[in-house]
Predict the structure.
Amino acid sequence: MISRNTAYRLWISDINNSSYVKSPGEFESNYIEFKDKRVSRVNLIVIIISKYGADNYSSMLVDDGSSQISVKAWNEDKKIIDKFSIGDVILLVGKIRQNNMGNSLFIQPEIIKKLDEKWLLARKKELEREYGKPSVTESKHNIYEDEFKIEQVNVSNESLRTKILNLIDKLDKDDGVSGDEIMSNINSKRTRETIDELLKEGEIFEMNNRYKLLK
């Protein structure tokens, strides 16, 4: 199984205002420096405000109320963007990348899921509790900028992981499933650890201490 870095919940303005660091190692992820963290993957709840598509390239500009950032995909990976529309509120899990020309950043999407509008407000309140109100910044990003090579990531499946995913799917009544509910239904010493792994990989997401499945 390939281990993925944690997908951090951040304001887009925090991403845009952070320094981008290119790791020297061939197999090490590039990242932004934010507070005491090295952030290479993010978990955002945003609204799509514009889109662009071509034969082998798709991009969209997204906004979370603090700033805007581009989301870009090429070739077969572009289908993850193509099925969404301007005005959609989405959960976006992906890697932070830097354009080959210039210093602007964009997101390489791994998972996108359409959400109800209420989750945008809930995430805003969650980030305000954790980081305070954002410093609103203008976007300097252009959805027509240069291409970037897409990496392929494969995730293996395990029985405990499957049990947790199936349980969340079964118990979720639109407001998520608490950790206590999961722990009480699955008796394993690795349950909490596996939940953390699923969060890092973007298979599930957490909102107000409840977990929801990415379908």
Q: What stands out?
A: Residues 159-213 form a domain with the Arc Repressor Mutant, subunit A fold (CATH 1.10.10.10).
